[in-house]
Amino acid sequence: MSTQVATTPHLAGRGNRPKHGGTARSAIWYVGVTALVVVLMYPVVWLISSSFKPAGEVLTNLSVLPDHATTSNYSEVFGGVAGYSVWQYFGNSLIVSGLAVIGNVLSCAVAGYAFGRMQFRGRGPLFAFMLSTIMLPHHVVLIPQYIIFQKLDMVNTFWPLVLPKFFATEAFFVFLVVQFVRGLPRELDESATIDGCGPFRTFWYVMLPLLRPAVITTSIFTFIWTWNDFFSQLIYLNDPSKFTLPLALQMFVDQSSKSAFGPMFAMSVLALIPIVLFFIAFQRFLVDGVSTSGLKG
Length: 297
Hints:
By secondary structure, the chain is mostly helical.
């Protein structure tokens, strides 16, 4: 009994002893994460700060805060670019991005459901062929696509930018939906069939509501990629009245003999706002979609 009483305080003292190793590792972790956030956010903060700098201070003052803050860059942007209002470029970008999101979500969801659930001849080879297109560079098919749209008299319209989205040409998003569909129980399809639902009604009323994480993930990435796209829009759009924001940025710099960095940075900040708002609104669904769709086999 005396031995037990003597050792109990000793053991209790060891149990209450602070874990200096765990505290040090946590401190190092937080310091490292904070440093990484600072490094990643510095270009964005510098861009916003430079949009308020005068023209002569953009390249000379490399600090984050401007010496003489001004809003003249934003006034110049809102005054118009090449004779067109900046809101017209915003509207063009919203039209292209919105139609691309609608087309990609509908087509990739239908194609993903077909590959993941329905049984038809050649499903395996077709799915493998679709996945192989991910490794195909976009520049390889650029000239054939341009010739096709030119013969259809669709060049200098929004159709070449949004029409392919309605035919499930984005294999990455089809694969994302397929992986999600494969994780859903097949009893849902059987119950819908017993209730008299065909493949279309089963997809629309049963599967599509459950595909919300994958659909929102597809919507976010499609919106961001289309909003920031420059090369495809440069190829197919010739009329300045139909230019999107990326093309308007380039045109804003080219319309004068000098490089107007201040207004260009101001317009870049305005172009980032919709993406940031869109991502903040749906970031929770993005994490859910990637974790539940992309990691299931």
